[in-house]
Amino acid sequence: METSLKHLREEFQYDKTNNCVQCGYCLPVCPTYTTFGKETHSPRGRINLVKMVGEGKITDLSVLEEPFDLCLGCRACETACPTGVEYGSILEATRAALVKRKTFSIPVRLLRKSMLKKVFPSRKMMNVTGNSIWLYKKSGLQKATRSSGIMKKLPYNLGAFEAIMPEPVSPVERGRALKEVKAKLNPKYIVAFFTGCIMDAMFHHINQLSIKLLSEAGCDVIVVPKQTCCGALHAHSGEMDEARNLAKQNILAFEKVEADFVVNNAGGCGAMLYEYGHLLSDDSEWADRARAFSAKSKDISQILVECGLPEIAARAGERVTYQRSCHMTNVQKVTQEPVELLKQVPGIQLIEMDQADMCCGSAGIYNIVNYDSSMQILDEKMKHTKATEAAVIITTNPGCLLQMKLGIDREGLTQSMRALHLIEYLAEAAGIDY
């Protein structure tokens, strides 16, 4: 019994729960607690459940599933915590432990295996995904499926997300993707650009605009071959071994290039890259290499602030609000750079919404697998967004971008409000076309 309990404590990282003094500072910043009002859906409540497992007071681990499934993983609690509780590590370990013991249905097991192990890590498969979306839109199939009413019958409310899919690029355009671009003026840095999997499949144009903006700002840009998915979706799903394998693949790929920084444009991906040092800390072969990689990992906004923007046209009187990426804010601690860049756009009115740091409810694929909960959180976010009377919502993460587009659509504001990635907005203001 003692051996079994000791193993559980190690597996669930019980020792890290002892830093939690149950003070409650995490409660007002936790989206699930403020939305659902249940102590088990708060950070300290979840931590207490893990403590009870480690102390042998909970033996039926299934009671942890709903509280931890419904956690967004936004990690705002870490920013608010006065005692430095490593909630992210506890969440990560608990999800991995629960997944290991969970019996998935055959369809779900096959879907998880195919998406997490075959699709997201494969650049070829993600290109096929992007090209398929283009074909779906351009062939008339989209129009036919919408008129048939089939969208309302799709599982996981996928019909709602179909309506706000970004405009895809053609296979020809995808084939012309920039691989290496020199700085327009004297180069200040050499940067290796991280394309991501979903970013490159669904938001390919934002990646290309990012490369052009970096070049205009004075960076030589290299798109590293053989890079793969960052592993964030795998870590969030409890597949930690697969996340570590992907981290090693990326480290190996980027080590082959001499660059000052590894630059990304997605808050969720950036947080994962930033945490490779933590992810591989127990691996003697990879720990130092992972820490070196993480030290070079930067969000694109950090580099653009450092280098300076190209000439920006005035946008007189345009009201803009910024929806902060949770993982950029709470993990990477990148908070001011996007705001600084927006303030450099002449003439705009930058209005900060109330509770700007609160999660929008996207959280990777949380808004798909926990749709109803996600929509409750989004509706609360949209109350604050609407109060700004902004014409543009700026985001720095693809999930946030889709979620805010969905929020605009749900509120019937598509004629008066739009959501854009920061890079889209800056490129538009600088006259840089895809």
Automatic annotation (TrEMBL):
Which InterPro entries does the entry link to? 4Fe4S_Fe-S-bd, 4Fe4S_Fe_S_CS, Cys_rich_dom, Glc_ox_4Fe-4S, Helical_ferredxn
Q: What SUPFAM superfamilies does the record tag this protein with? A: alpha-helical ferredoxin (SSF46548)
Could you list this entry's UniProt keywords, alphabetically sorted.
Answer: 4Fe-4S, Electron transport, Iron, Iron-sulfur, Metal-binding, Repeat, Transport
Q: Which cofactor does it need?
A: [4Fe-4S] cluster
- One Pfam family, short name: Fer4_8
Q: What is its EC number?
A: 1.1.99.14
Catalysed reaction(s) here are: glycolate + A = glyoxylate + AH2; (R)-lactate + A = pyruvate + AH2
How does the cofactor attach, per the note?
Answer: Binds 2 [4Fe-4S] clusters.
The 4Fe-4S ferredoxin-type domain covers 10-41, 61-85
The protein's role, per its UniProt record:
Component of a complex that catalyzes the oxidation of glycolate to glyoxylate.
Q: What is this protein called?
A: Glycolate oxidase iron-sulfur subunit
Ranked from the top, the taxonomy reads: Bacteria, Bacillati, Bacillota, Bacilli, Bacillales
